[in-house]
Amino acid sequence: MGKLKAALANQQFGAAKAAAKKRASAAEEAKKQSIKASVDGVKKGKKRAKAKAGPSAGPVNGSEGVLEGKGKGREKPPTIPIDPLDTVLLLGEANFSYTLALLAPPHNLPPHQILATVYDSEAVTLEKYPDAAENVKTLREKGVRVEFGVDAGALEKCKAVGKGRRWSRVVFNFPHVGAGIKDQDRNVLTNQHMLLRFFRSVEPLLTDGPTHMPLPQRSNKKGKKQAPKAKRADSEDPESELSGVSDVEDLGFEDDSLSLPSAPQAREFTPPTRAGSVLITLLTCLPYTLWCLPQLAARPPSVCPGTNLPQPRYTLLRSFEFKPAAYQGYAHRRTIGWKEGLSKGENEEIMGRKGVPRTYEFVRSVKDE
Predict the structure, then answer these.
(1) Mind naming one GO cellular-component term on file for this protein (predicted)?
(2) Domain for residue 113, yes or no?
(3) What pLDDT is attached to residue 348?
(4) In whole angstroms, how far apart are CA 147 and each of 116, 169, 202?
(5) Residues 6 or more apart from 70 whose CB is under 8 A from it?
(6) Residue 334 falls within a domain, yes or no?
(7) Residue 275 Cα to chain centre, angstroms
């Protein structure tokens, strides 16, 4: 009896073992079939996508990964914020290479509509920036007005800037007091005061009229955002946390060879009927992000520092990456000037940093905002 029981147990164990082995083999086969089907599906999907894209979906201009049409790998065209109808005031121009670039394609701005200025005297400017002399000579020959000793925080003191003139674009690229202040907090505060003085000084010189693009929508009183009227993009903007302010889709050219239309050949200074805007370009890295530029413009102190005058408010219309390559011959220079053997050329001062150059465009806030 004992032997029979043991034999049955052995038989049951053997049967169970064989069944388990069979199940394992079936599972392994099913897994292989599943993997094969998945691989086949991927291959078929790639073939369908390739057939749908057609022969034009390859790299363009010799750049791998940059495809025609809408795609993540495609580089955005540069934003061109100035057109030939604008009256343009340029501040803190250093070597005047940016001004010179505005006369060339794709900008083609009429010289008589431009006033280029710099803070230093002519003698100091030419000493600090060796390439400025030739640029200034060329600009004056072409009909561009150039002024030295112009304080962006006291524009009313310069007759060439404010004598019966209104500006639809005021450009202040990479502003900095250049005081060499080592203490970061004091340095930030000094530059913020400089910007506030500029915002106050330039406000009465801006042209009036509708904005050239829709204003960003603010939140209503219940905290619900109103439906946007303009398409939004550029979520990479580090300063976009400002309530009621958002970036707008960059407006640029689809083709680098495309040039702006030439302005009428009239030689008279003619401001357009549109809301004047202020364009300030900074790097998106420390210490510049500590200046809190969008907040400084939108929610400033009630009185301008160093004065008893009211401080105007501005609305951030848009922000976009500043691309030096869009400005033929542009060469960035620091406020302290060009130091042979120390200063960097080829725009490395702004392109070789952690942050990227970014332009913020502001318009005067309407009173009911």
Answers:
(1) cytoplasm
(2) yes
(3) 63
(4) 6, 17, 16
(5) none
(6) yes
(7) 21
Q: How far apart are CA 345 and CA 194, in angstroms?
A: 27
Beta bridge partners of 232: 248
Are β-strands 169-173 and 88-91 bridged in parallel, bridged antiparallel, or unpaired?
parallel
Residue from 155, 80, 88 nearest 326 by CA: 80
Q: What is the pLDDT of residue 51?
A: 54
Cα separation of 115 and 155, whole Å? 12
Full-model pTM: 0.70
Residue 307 phi, psi (nearest 5): -140, 175
- Report yes or no: 229 and 329 within 8 Å, Cβ to Cβ: no
Q: State the CATH number of the domain containing residue 188.
A: 3.40.50.150
Contact 272, 83 (CB under 8 A): no
What is the spatial distance between Cα 202 and Cα 166, in angstroms, rounded to a whole number?
10
pLDDT of res. 18: 66
Both tokens of 184, joined, read: 């970061």
Whether 4 and 10 have beta carbons less than 8 Å apart is answered as no
DSSP bridge partners of 90: 116, 171
Place of tokens 């406020």: 335
The reply to whether 79 falls in a domain is no
Q: 199-221 in b/e burial notation, b at 16+ Cβ within 10 A?
A: bbbbbebbbeeebbbebbbeeee
In a domain, 325, yes or no: yes
| Of 189, 161, 194, the residue nearest 177 (C-alpha) | 194
List the domain range (segments joined by +) for residue 326: 88-214+268-364
Chain mean position to CA 91: 19
The total domain count for the chain is 1
